[in-house]
Amino acid sequence: MPDTNHPDRCCSWPARAGLILAVSLLLAALTGAQLIRILRLHRTMNAAAASRKWPTVEGRVLSSGIKESQGAGWFKNIPESEFKLEYSYTIDGQSYTGSRIYFGYGPERERERADDLAADYPAGKNVVVHYQPAQPAECALETGQSLLLRQQFHRAKNQLWTGAGVIIIVSAVILFIRRKWRQLQNY
Q1: Does the residue 171 lie in any domain?
Q2: 133 lies in a domain?
Q3: Which of 47, 59, 106, 138 has the highest Cβ tally under 10 A?
C-alpha cells in the first residue's frame, strides 16, 4: 500500500504524467482553436483594409432596429445592444441586400453606440454601399478596419501567446517530474 502522506509517493509517475498530459492536450486544443480564430480575424482584417478601395453605389436602408440580449460567458449578466439593419442596392441590374455596417461589428455593451448607429441609419435612408467588385454581395456601409476589429485581433494574439507559454511551462514541469521520478526509482 503506497504511503499517501509522503508527497513523492502519493501517486505514480504514470498517474501524474497522465493528468499533466491531459491538461497539456486541453491547452493545446484551446491554443489551436485560438490560432484558427486569429487566422479568421486576419482574413477579416485584410478584407476590411481592401474595402477602402471598393467601388460604391447608392443603396437604401430597408429596416433597422436595436436587438437587446444578455451577454455570453463571463458577461452573461451584462445586457448587450446590437444594432441590426438591412439595406438594398443594385449593381448592373442585379439587386442585392446587405447587413454589414463595418467589419468586426458586434453587440455593444453600451447602449449609446447602438443608439448612435440607429440614428445614423434609420429605415428609408439613402446610404452609400461599398461592395467588392468580384463578389458584389459582399458589402459594407463603412470601410476599413474598425478599432473593435483591431482590438479583437490583438486580444486573440495575446491569448495565443499566453496559451503557448503555458504549454511550454507545463511541458517543463512534465520533464522535471519525470526526472525526479526516475531519480526516486534509482534509490
Answers
A1: yes
A2: yes
A3: 59
pLDDT in tens, 40-72: 888 888 888 888 999 999 999 999 998 887 766
Q: Which domain holds residue 38?
A: 12-45+153-186
Which is more confident, 24 or 45?
Answer: 45
Number of domains in the chain: 2
Q: What is the per-residue burial (b if ≥16 Cβ within 10 Å, else e) of 117-148? A: bbebbeeeeebebbbbeeebebbbbbbebbee
**Assigned C-alpha cell, 130:** 461599398
121 and 71, same structural domain?
yes
Nearest to 121 by CA among 67, 59, 57, 64: 64
Can you name the residues that pair with 99 across neighbouring β-strands?
Answer: none
Contact 128, 59 (CB under 8 A): yes
Residue range 82-111, pLDDT digits in tens: 889 999 999 999 999 999 988 877 666 667
Does 148 map to a domain?
no
Within a 13 Å sphere around the CA of 166, how many CA atoms are in the beta-carbon half? Answer: 17
